[in-house]
């Protein structure tokens, strides 16, 4: 085993992944760690009283989070880390109950660009948030995590579809409704009542609304003869959320630092808590209003100065070189798992990296003794995007897109390198501790 493999950190990662089947659970898990480390929770509806040298966090929609530490010295710049809490998956429709051939099924809609085939024949749990009404009329939002196999999407036998291995399209409307139980009378509302009582002891409550989805209950595992790999659901992009949080907690706290974990990246980021929304800008304005530069504190002038003196590292996983599909990569840009963080470049600005931010990140990796790689998609293939260009556009902060290489992106189970967890953490700690951003 390489000495870079950090057993304690990877163990924490596996526990975080296990506890985070939805963006709401991931945000809750991060908030718990921040509070344990002494971060103070802020409410967006309250007046903020910020003090130099202190650490704070705030959530929006219970699915996005911003945590930041303020320097004891005057605030001149922020070292920002960005990631996203959501992952592609199957979300329940509002009127989900349906029956077929004597079985209760639940109708689903596909969230994000999910790879559908791996969802078949998996042990599926259900998780998300549920809004309930108590007997006294009070509304409450509660997290629900049915973390045992309660559903499955069975494949059709090859005997009934001889051409399936030649390539068959999947219809999510007609072919992907999970099977829950043998019944033609049970309803989703009945099941929710049981699960809410089992998990929270709630009785005599009405389910008013919900945002729920299925997930694979198989826990994360370390794979390979030497445990070179970690396999889990939602590595894209909870791996970056975890590493960003680890770096924020491990840094020396001398510089202004901020971690933003947005929801809704997989569906375009256009929401109040997404990267295209005002969440990060709102927080930066409130910080600047109290701790901005000199006599211009709180002005548009000082806010622009703060943003332009800062840097955002957008962390979202990259496509690692697949040993069975090497032709899907540009032959000069095939990042290897456990080969270090990847700088993501696209001439059409699908990634926000430019030579200035790229050079700075390479220098950060050099100082941290961390290997660094580059990714450019093939010129005859389309390119995905991240919160990086959106954040740069909405906020104006200089930004670089990086990520750890992985296989099977957007599958129900993805794979990354265990050594890379330490690689990126060390690089980001070096970035947050860096005194001068040039």
Automatic annotation (TrEMBL):
Its EC number is 3.4.11.-. One of its GO terms (biological process) is proteolysis. GO terms for molecular function: aminopeptidase activity; metallopeptidase activity; zinc ion binding. Its cofactor is Zn(2+). Pfam families: Peptidase_M18. InterPro entries: Peptidase_M18 (IPR001948), Peptidase_M18_dom2 (IPR023358). Keywords: Aminopeptidase, Hydrolase, Metal-binding, Metalloprotease, Protease, Zinc. Signal peptide: none annotated. One of its GO terms (cellular component) is cytoplasm. PANTHER family: ASPARTYL AMINOPEPTIDASE (PTHR28570). Belongs to the peptidase M18 family. This is M18 family aminopeptidase. The lineage of its organism: Bacteria, Pseudomonadati, Pseudomonadota, Gammaproteobacteria, Oceanospirillales.
């Amino acid at each position: 085993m390489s000495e870079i493999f950090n057993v304690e950190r990877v163990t924490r990662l596996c526990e975080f992944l296990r506890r985070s089947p939805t963006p709401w659970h991931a945000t809750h898990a991060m908030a718990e760690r921040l509070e344990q480390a002494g971060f103070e929770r802020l409410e967006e509806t309250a007046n903020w009283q910020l003090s130099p040298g202190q650490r704070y966090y705030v959530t929006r929609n219970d699915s996005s989070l911003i945590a930041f530490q303020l320097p004891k010295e005057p605030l001149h710049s922020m070292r920002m880390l960005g990631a996203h809490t959501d992952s592609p998956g199957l979300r329940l429709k509002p009127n989900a109950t349906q029956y077929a051939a004597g079985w209760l099924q639940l109708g689903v809609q596909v969230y994000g660009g999910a790879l559908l085939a791996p969802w078949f024949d998996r042990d599926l749990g259900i998780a998300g948030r549920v809004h309930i009404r108590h007997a006294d009329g009070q509304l409450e939002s509660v997290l629900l995590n049915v973390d045992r196999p309660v559903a499955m999407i069975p494949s059709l036998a090859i005997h009934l579809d001889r051409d399936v291995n030649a390539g068959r399209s999947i219809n999510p409307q007609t072919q992907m409704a999970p099977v829950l139980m043998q019944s033609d009378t049970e309803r989703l509302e009945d099941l929710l009542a049981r699960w809410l009582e089992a998990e929270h002891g709630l009785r005599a409550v009405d389910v008013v609304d919900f945002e729920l989805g299925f997930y694979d209950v198989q826990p994360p595992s370390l794979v390979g003869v030497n445990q070179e790999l970690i396999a889990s659901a939602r590595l894209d992009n909870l791996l970056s959320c975890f590493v960003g949080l680890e770096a924020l907690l491990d840094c020396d706290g001398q510089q202004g630092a901020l971690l933003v974990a947005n929801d809704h990246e997989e569906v375009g980021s256009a929401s109040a808590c997404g990267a295209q929304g005002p969440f990060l800008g709102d927080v930066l304005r409130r910080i600047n209003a109290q701790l901005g530069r000199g006599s211009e504190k709180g002005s548009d002038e000082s806010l622009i100065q703060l943003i332009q003196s800062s840097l955002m590292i957008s962390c979202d996983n990259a496509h690692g070189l697949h040993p069975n599909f090497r032709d899907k990569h540009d032959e000069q840009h095939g990042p290897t798992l456990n080969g270090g963080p990847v700088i993501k470049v696209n001439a059409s600005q699908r990634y926000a990296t430019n030579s200035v931010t790229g050079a700075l990140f390479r220098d950060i990796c050099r100082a941290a003794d961390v290997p660094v790689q580059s990714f450019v998609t093939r010129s005859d293939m389309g390119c995905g995007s991240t919160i990086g260009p959106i954040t740069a556009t909405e906020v104006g902060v200089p930004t670089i897109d990086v990520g750890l290489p992985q296989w099977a992106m957007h599958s129900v189970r993805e794979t990354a390198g265990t050594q890379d967890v330490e690689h990126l953490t060390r690089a980001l700690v070096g970035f947050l501790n860096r005194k001068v951003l040039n």
